[in-house]
Amino acid sequence: MLKNFRPAAVLVAAALATSLAGCAGKKDKGLDTNYVARDVNTLYALAKERLDNGSYKRAAELFNEVERQHPYSVWARRAQLMGAFSHYMAHNYSDAINAGQRFLTIYPGNKDAPYAHYLIAMSYYRQIEDVTRDQSITQDARDSFSELLRRYPSSRYAADARIKLDLVNDQLAGKEMEVGRFYQGQRQWLAATMRFRHVIDNYQTTAHAPEALHRLVESYLALGVRDEALKAAAVLGKNYPDSEWYERSYALMQKHGATS
Q: Which of 60, 123, 138, 250 is the most exposed place for a label (fewest CB within 10 A)?
């Protein structure tokens, strides 16, 4: 499970939250929601206070109240994004994604749109399961990070997005390898080659590429397609000559008398 995340989102959002707090004062600290109408400065300041104190769920509710009670104010836009961040910090990732997507629908050209994209991608990222589980969320994370980089390649979130995208790709490649090895164990060689081929074609920069090439050699030899096995072994030798996977493939090719 991808849990090696030091929340960069927290750091960038902290700066964002400070700027968004702006002229909001620290009024009426005892107030809470309960649908009591109040001025926008008081409500936003209370929401920000709850966020700073780590009461993330309550902060989200209060930011939602800002938007509900003052939908046409500048604070409504700010509160919507801060509400999404509060949901994220509360680990309510589905709500964070929905809030982020809603922000982008209403304010697609806003200066904070890159952050909304980043928050959505991170919300998917934090839900990634290990490779033995379904990886649809992982694919969503990949799509979201890719969209952020496509739209805003020079944004302050791009560098971290690229790192996370590499980790996501490695996860997806790992899933393909797991399925491919399962097919090998069932002697379903053609199905196995399709999985390993997918890794080579789509995740060639991940750490799984050398093993994928070796598994292709194994599968092609099992299918009796020696020329294809030789090609895979040659690519493995050219790109990863010092890897254990090349040593294994070379020994396997010699065993089958398929070396050139």
A: 250
Q: Please list, in sequence order, all residues whose beta carbon lies within 8 angstroms of the beta carbon of residue 101, skipping any fewer than 6 positions away.
A: 120
- In degrees, rounded to 5, the angle at the alpha carbon of residue 185 between the alpha carbons of residues 224 and 249 is 50
Spatial distance between the Cα atoms of 191 and 231, rounded to a whole number of angstroms: 19
Per-residue pLDDT tens, the chain, 260 aa: give them: 454 444 444 435 443 443 444 434 444 444 454 545 568 888 999 999 999 999 999 999 999 999 889 888 889 899 999 999 999 999 999 999 999 999 999 999 999 999 999 999 999 999 998 888 889 999 999 999 999 999 999 999 999 999 999 999 999 999 999 999 999 999 999 999 999 999 999 999 999 999 999 999 999 999 999 999 999 999 999 999 999 999 999 999 999 886 65
Q: Which domains does the chain have, with CATH numbers?
A: 1-127 (1.25.40.10)
Distances (CA, A) of 152 to 84, 99, 161, 162, 163: 20, 20, 11, 12, 15
pTM of the predicted model over 0.90: no
Distance of CA 97 to the CA centre of its chain: 12
Residue of 142, 98, 117, 99 whose CA lies nearest to 9: 117
Nearest residue to 180 (alpha-carbon basis) of 202, 198, 205, 206: 198
3-class SS at 34? coil
Structure tokens, 150: 């496509």
CA distances (Å), origin 160, targets 140, 152, 200: 17, 12, 25
